[in-house]
Model the fold of this input.
Amino acid sequence: MSSKADILKKIKQNQPAFSADLPDLNLLSSENPDVLATYKTVLKNIGGDPVEVTSYAEILDYIKKNYALEKRIITTIPELSEIASLDWTSDDPHLLADVELNIIKAHFGVAENSALWVTDDVLGQRVSPFIAQYLAIIVHKKDILASMHQAYERIGNQQYGFGTFIAGPSKTADIEQSLVLGAHGARGLIVFMLD
Amino acid sequence: MVKKQKKEMSSEKVIPHSEAATRFNKDTERVNWHDETLWFVREKRDKSAHQIPDWELLRETASQIKNNVLSNIHDYLIEFEANAQKNGIIVHWAADAKEHNQIVHSIMAKHEVKQMVKSKSMLTEECHLNDYLAEKGIEVIDSDLGEYIVQLRKEPPSHIVLPAIHLKKEDVSETFHEHLGTEKGNIDPQYLTESARLSLRNTFLTRKVALTGVNFAIAETGEIVVCTNEGNADMGAHLADVHIACMGFEKLIPERKHLGVFLRLLARSATGQPITTFSSHFKKPRAGKEIHIVIVDNGRSTQLGREDFRNSLKCIRCGACMNTCPVYRRSGGHSYHNAVAGPIGSILAPNLDMSKNADLPFASTLCGSCTNVCPVKIDIHDQLYKWRQVLVKEGHTPTAKTIAMNTMAKVLANPTIFNIAGKSGRFVMKNMPGLVNNKMNKWYDQREMPEVPEESFREWYKKNSREAKAKDNE
Done:
């Protein structure tokens, strides 16, 4: 307790007397005439795979064709219950260690960096997008914004316990700057861009 | 008693930057590779920055936000703590490294846990937390791949963003062969990364306490943001019962929307990526779990009071100044003997320990490249120059340099002495080169001494100036 008082006292003494105003963020332009094209290009550049779809049926088809269905697949989306389980969200998170594929839905995406915003509401469990070997995220095309400034306008004062931007699969270049996908989190990320 | 003294002495002793750099430069091929690798990262930063038409405005905006933070940090800290507590987060305050380490240990002790998984936190490097916890019998595993590699090798990170940038894949292969039993001689980065993934996955699944750093703390909401590419901070934090997040108090930003500015700048400046893979916002703990935030001063409030150097607290730890620095690239992070190396580290370190780090502000050509790439517009090279003046005034420069400078001042101030010194210098260099071309002369270290002119400019001018010629013609 005394450290807090000491630290604050010293800061008050030493911080500059004049106060610089906070800048106007509206001066930063966030225009982009073609957010969808930008989103796809940026996502590919950072190792993710954009897949345009028109319905959940198409998503089901894609997963059936491209993933081993005998392995454990989880989701928080009732429309995908045919291929993925929904009853894991109150389990001990450690039990998700054997998940092969996790399919979740993002609130929105950001074209300039291909990031997708997800929070507790859509994650099922916080660890779910990190612990699964592969990750698929569904985002509506109309929910792709131009820049991070628009992203935070959209978030506004949204309430969440945990939220994260996910941009591409987990990666590292810590060994001689060689890019390797699948560091500790998902080895691959598919983004289903839904009409 | 004697033993204790000895230990204290040895912990004080560091190899000066120039000496460490000389050692680093013995392996020319490796130095060239190190130089090129970091320049490659700098080029990626340029490419990425040039894609943002508003880049300069973005830097200016970030700088203004940080200036506002420096002036109001007292109130923002109080606001942050209150909001974090409202969110169910436990907030601690540490005046220095020792108190920080004690707080972390007390949380471990309270939960009777002996193992910790840690993601990247330069603050804990600054505080030497790992050593402290090891003495208390607590095992810490660093989970960022680069940090994991250097930890296995018992080395500190050499770069704040790329901790193992000084190592080649052959080095990593040997380290992993020894510690993880990977195939001898297999240097494939994919294979090596996969081996670490498997080993660390088991770590994540079995640790009850996870420690992370903090990239940004938001006063308005009481949440913290942690950025990683690997997902290691999240794997640790979401599987543990207790998440400890340690931050220097300068990590505060006023409002959530300001993250839009900083997240656009951070990864682009660091590695040229448009954003890190994960930018995780921790606001409330999971039900029945704990989040602790340790707010650390450790000299920062002193730096805040140094008008010439307080701007260094705006740093967002992107590492761009290191990647672009010609001295860093050719001397390596370890030669800076400080948790944060490179140009920014050389401004921060003398604040922590002036005498130990007096060499660092001199490890620069003052070319200004660092200042030009800094995403929050810290006047890094100006501050390096100003530190030099402070250090000389306070008597922290090496004796040889002080004597040389004083002599130089006398010689330059007196034309007669200057004349004589010039003449005798030229005589010596011409007739007794061994007196100059030797190890005592720092200028001879990496260069040949120049050929000696027959006369000085002054002598030449005397002969050739208009007045002299007019005199001759008389």
Notes: Chain A touches chain B through 70 residues (CB under 8 Å). The helical segments of chain A are 2-14, 35-45, 56-66, 120-123, 128-131, 148-155. The radius of gyration of chain A is 20 Å.
